Request: fold
Amino acid sequence: MAFEYELIKECKDTGARAGVFHTTHGDIQTPVFMPVGTQATVKTMTPEELKDCNAQIILSNTYHLYLRPGHELVKEAGGLHKFMNWDRPILTDSGGFQVFSLGDLRKIKEEGVEFRSHIDGSKHLFTPESVMEIENALGADIIMAFDECAPYPASYEYVQQSADRTTRWLERCKAAHKREDQALFGIIQGGMYRDLREKSAREITAIDLPGYAVGGLSVGEPAEKMYEMLSYTTPLMPKNKPRYLMGVGAPENLLEGVMLGIDMFDCVLPTRIGRNGTVFTRNGKLVVRNAEYAHDFRPLEDGCDCYACRNFSRAYIRHLLKAGEVLGIRLTTIHNIHFLTHLMQDIRQAILEDRMLEFKENFYQKFQR
Amino acid sequence: MAFEYELIKECKDTGARAGVFHTTHGDIQTPVFMPVGTQATVKTMTPEELKDCNAQIILSNTYHLYLRPGHELVKEAGGLHKFMNWDRPILTDSGGFQVFSLGDLRKIKEEGVEFRSHIDGSKHLFTPESVMEIENALGADIIMAFDECAPYPASYEYVQQSADRTTRWLERCKAAHKREDQALFGIIQGGMYRDLREKSAREITAIDLPGYAVGGLSVGEPAEKMYEMLSYTTPLMPKNKPRYLMGVGAPENLLEGVMLGIDMFDCVLPTRIGRNGTVFTRNGKLVVRNAEYAHDFRPLEDGCDCYACRNFSRAYIRHLLKAGEVLGIRLTTIHNIHFLTHLMQDIRQAILEDRMLEFKENFYQKFQR
Reply:
């Protein structure tokens, strides 16, 4: 299986690009937003609903699946696709971000990371080799290397050591990775330091792999700092490989990320804010839980053709949310996933038609952060 | 609008009957199980999923909708059908059962019942007249009269007074009911006393209405006591009107109820036990949350063609339930609703083909309570 990225169009005015990434479970039209299915399910949604929202690929979390239900069980089920009944591409992260987020519950060594489960406190060790074994068992189309995502802020020295270790770990991941039907992606780190970002970008992309990600951004820094780091990083990434910005999902960040040369994004934002009663619209966020929508019989967003907007009013969805009814968070989630996948489709179309600057101007005319 | 019940077939061996009840929003093939959508939503399900499960009619609760979002809001939305986007028949209960369940929070008088909201403690009064106004505003096809459901156990004297008042309240409901496109059903009470049941059945059915219900059963008494009470009651109910047994939903109770001449049933049981990780099968209940199903890659029930069984394994659904994922309770709920609606379809077919006794024998050979 060759994981080939076809570059179809480069924007003449920005770094944006449109392409197709070929994977074991089908093609991905890029740029793309990937909904997150942490525990082998995109929260509240069925696979059919994800397809109705035009989700092309979803992400799932190695850390969570390793702890529950266990990668061996998923393997026994025939892999993650079969287990969750999703026949389109899947990407698994490496668990790096989750174990580093455990704070006092983890200890970093050259060998790997010792950590305690957030579920039952049991002790575990993740190494580049063990993570590859887990991701091979899960069987996603794209698997992420085990890296360290440095916190923000972090000292120059800390980020330097951490990024260097991430490179050494990537070599070990590549050596341990066993399956040709899975594409291993390396992750560029380097915190908020330009020279460390550039060094990491050069070293990581020097290791031949089917794709590369930019990690360690969207970790609490201002958006302008993230864009600045991207502007140093993406020019050093190969043009003939997909570029994935990890953990980014706000509409304006997707647009800016694409213009800085990113092809793939993931984030829990659309599902999480949906469960809190907030939805994306072209005009910005709308908190449908608010009292002002109690008698509002319009759809969440005028002109939207998602299942929620075609069938239900703000007043009804607000009622469901206030009453704690599951259907409420199902509908806000569907709308938000639909919103981001369709935003990306519109952006892709603008790239293909050479009108990204016009698209950007129109977007910001309406959109309130 | 005429609410006509067509009696299509009477079982030669039991009291079972097959019919069709014509309502404003379409025909209902009886016997029928009605899923409960307490707060204008059958918990976790969309209207499309209910239709996929062959739900013909759903029930919603006047008490809950009156308190939240308020019947005036539902009326403003164009009625309950439009508010929740359900175009098939709806039945609303009268709130009687709920306000009597409030215990210390309510006070019964001849005029009606004073009660405090379980949500915010605010004070309210339900009378036959106010309940008719609320149910007229909600706009269901079938609306239930305001009655008193006596507790179990209750003294003869208490039940007698309560059943007599229920009859007086039914007269007031009939006088107050305004809409010809809604069918008002009276409710027979009488607790566990044969003569009071018979008296109530005679008095309630003497008031000309398009249908009648049996209330005050399935309130904690043994199943045999419920069947006994039904056996005194249904023979006194008119043959040319639908007969509704309120609050009954266990598979064996549905079967016995049908054989005692009941046409309609409702219960929260399938949705509630689904949310607790339990599903109905032809062999009895299956607690899919249990550890024994962790590596069981069969569907919830072999041979079932519901969405959950066509697409997912016990192992996956158990994982979702253990992980607290909404999709888990969506799938168990779908299976349970599908199970009961299809059980009723099978029973109806057995009645039409004059093989109810054979059906009953086959049912109990497999089914473990």
